[in-house]
Amino acid sequence: MSLVVKDLSIRVGSQHLVRGVSLSIDRGDVVALLGPSGSGKSLTAASLSGSLPGSAMVRGHLEVDGQATPLGDRTRAGIAAIRQDSLTSLHPLVRIDRQLVPVLLRSGEASTRAGALARAELMLEEVGFAAPTQVLRSFPMELSGGQRQRICIVQALACRASYLIADEPTTALDGVSQQLVLSAFRTAAEAGAGILLITHDVVAASSLCSRAVILDAGSVVDQGSFSHLASRAAHPIARSLTWAAHQTTTQDKHTAA
Ligand SMILES: Nc1ncnc2c1ncn2[C@@H]1O[C@H](COP(=O)(O)OP(=O)(O)OP(=O)(O)O)[C@@H](O)[C@H]1O
Which residues are in the ABC transporter domain (predicted)? Predict the structure, then answer.
């Protein structure tokens, strides 16, 4: 079971911003999408989650668990997304409980409102909220950027989607929250979700992901395991992006030994 995108191409006006990108994510696997700023990671993510801007022209083939799926389809079943900008993802005039409870009921995580509230509290605790009851009663504007980001992460995980597209989910978070979120992703993958993690944090990616796809100027320049990318990568960007992570992982292993 996997999500496969082939020959993805995105244009806005006369600009060809993503060119022939192909990648796959297996259920239960976490794949990193790395690359310099402006290389096309967010556009690629948006095309998979059906949230490309209306001005974008998209071409290519998407298959979800063997089922061909239109790339422009905005109501895509089975794929949840975490976007970079958490303020636009949450309804500003709706309290957090009313943004989480319906998702948990729809996904079958809970069958009653009381059960969904209890589950929401637990999931909020798992991403570092010390007072989840209070958070559930808040409006998004009463929370910090990092808190809103973690609520979007809980909302996406609450969908229990087969695939999760996470665009820089931990950028606004402190170190402890980052670790908790990565641990929640690991748990989701162990439960069978396929995750695409877009990040500039190569060390975090190498600790969580089995392999990475590297984009530069809208094209895939390399992909494979982190040790492959660090040692034999054909493209200098792939080498520089993965070298530090590989060094850290290797040092950690030596320290542990
Ligand atoms: N709606 C849009 N209209 C026109 N150009 C866009 C649009 N969205 C993105 N771009 C351009 O497409 C290119 C890729 O953008 P994208 O946001 O995918 O990069 P990214 O790799 O996610 O960067 P970052 O790491 O900084 O988030 C950039 O040159 C950007 O300016």
Answer: 3-242
Q: Are strands 30-34 and 211-216 parallel, antiparallel or unpaired?
A: parallel
ipTM summary value: 0.97
Tell how far the Cα of 176 is from the centroid of ligand 1, in angstroms: 29
What gap in Å lies between CA 171 and CA 11, rounded to an integer? 27
Q: Which residues of the chain have pLDDT under 50?
A: 253, 257
User: Looking at residue 241, what is its pLDDT?
Assistant: 63
Q: Per the structure block, which two tokens stand in for 194?
A: 């396929």
Question: C-alpha angle 144/147/152, rounded to 5°?
Answer: 125
> Where do the domains of the chain lie, and which CATH numbers do they carry?
2-217 (3.40.50.300)
First-residue to last-residue Cα distance in the chain: 36
The answer, yes or no, to whether any atom of ligand 1 lies below 6 A from the CB of 38, is: yes
Place of tokens 């993690």: 197
